[in-house]
Structure prediction request, 209 residues.
Amino acid sequence: MPHHGTDFTSVESRSSTAQQDTHFSCETVFNYERALVECASGSLSAVGEIYVREKDRLCAVAHRIVHDKSRAEDVIHDAFAQILRFAKDFDPARGSARGWIYAIVRNTALKTQARARRELAFEEDTLNAICQREQTVPNPASGIPDSMSLRAMLDQLEPNRRACVLLAIIDGRTHEEIAEYLRVPVGTVKAWIRRELMAMRRQLDEARS
Prediction:
């Protein structure tokens, strides 16, 4: 899905140029609990400082769970959106602020991985088989209902998701090319294609039964 709201890459850039800020001076011990308090008040500089300090280690944690660089990056973005949103719920009596941050990343990664396991991975030969469905049916006329159903299902898709499916199947574009064209994360492209193809195949099977 496309990311909306805070762009943590730009937040990182702004935080990197503010290293002289004495509140978050590199020469002092960073106070994660205080940073979360500031996040709760909507401080982008606070969440940006956490991002700058922890992003590499957090990304490594996410990658060990999801086993995919693009999805790990998506996990980090989603996790930081949650950190900014739920910082007000942090309770120091239940653990450290840094531990709370890492717990959010781990939980987000686990949920992402669980969703991925439920999604059917479509290999290239499977995509090609869908494209060539009409050529393999014994009676060409029997493929007409499928074609009409596919067209109707495509017409109902949100424009970006429809574009993903068509660019992958018809044009043979890679996930990276589609992501660049639509300006969305690669992980989002993969998820859209998997989900929509699963839904379309399920609807076709139901229509035949």
Notes: Residues 1 and 188 are 5 Å apart (CA to CA). DSSP finds eleven helices and no strands in the chain.
